[in-house]
Amino acid sequence: MVKAxxxxxxxxxxxxxxxxxxxxxxxFGGLEARAGVADVKNADKGINWALxxxxxxxxxxxxxxxxxLNGFNADVDLKLGGNQVGGSLxxxxxxTGVRADLRPLRKLSPYLLxxxxxTHVNASDVNDPAGEDxxxxxxxxxxxxxxxxxxxxxxxxxxxxxxxxxxxxxxxxRTVVTGxxxxxxxxxxxxxxxxxxxxxxxxxxxATFASxxxxxxxxxxxxxxxxxxxxxxxETVFDTSTGGLSAKGQSTVQSTAKSxxxxxxxxxxxxxxxxxxxxxxSDQRAAEQRAEAVRAALFAGGVAxxxxxxxxxxxxRPIGDNSTAEGRSKNRRVEIVVVGAKQ
Length: 343
Description:
Blueprint: H1 2-15, E1 30-40, E2 45-58, E3 60-75, E4 78-80, E5 83-85, E6 88-101, E7 108-124, H2 129-135, E8 137-152, E9 158-167, E10 174-183, H3 206-214, E11 219-225, E12 228-233, H4 247-260, E13 267-273, H5 280-300, E14 308-312, H6 325-331, E15 333-339
Parallel strand pairs: 13-14
Antiparallel strand pairs: 1-2, 1-10, 2-3, 3-6, 4-5, 6-7, 7-8, 8-9, 9-10, 11-12, 12-15, 13-15
């Protein structure tokens, strides 16, 4: 019982609201006080009372969690060995559970109850030792029941409540009928779901930006230098028959544009390059055409036109050996240079 009382003290402290908004468990939704009649097993009908606190909702706002204190007093009504046993019972305990408010926004709202109670029963003046041993003790029991709340006033922060509860599984199991008052400081707003707190996005750095584009199809290399990231697109992102972007290239550039959006102040320069197999004029035209195709795709993907430039360098800036097929393939590329890639 000492542990139960200590738990109750902690619960009561948790119920003292520092702010009114009802939260999901463990929050604060209000208080409820009830009194009524307890029909106790092995005893006459007696008086029952309860004080509960709303601890917020569980999964859905209509599933209200509660915890609080309860107790009852009754006279013993028990026969053992043909003899009538006299005396009285007094009980104090804690209860906790879930209440389902079925139609919470209506004037009359029915509800269902399911919970547990932890009760210490003190048997006084019992004239039979066996009867005293049977009744006196601490009990854990299942509680369930039904009830209804009649909301009062325009704000509906108060409600008259009444319910029928059953406590099972002990020598002092009981049926309880109580009525009382419920205070919900937020009224109908307590049945609004609490929004999930937005998770703060991790800051995007040049390293995370580079990582996000490195695995894209057609990206042969990504170079990082201070706040500049250079994305090298190989020749496979282009359609050799039209000179424009292939389907794969369109997808890659669209994904790159989304990543560039994380850096609203960055400038983006698109640079086209070729090998040296053609004449300089045709190489220059091919380089400019491919750079412009990538620039247009970045613009279509959401990068502001004012941030974009495109330039063709022809075969003047090789990165591979033009005397080999592999080297020439490396030189036929477009580089997307993002300058200022930091937040």
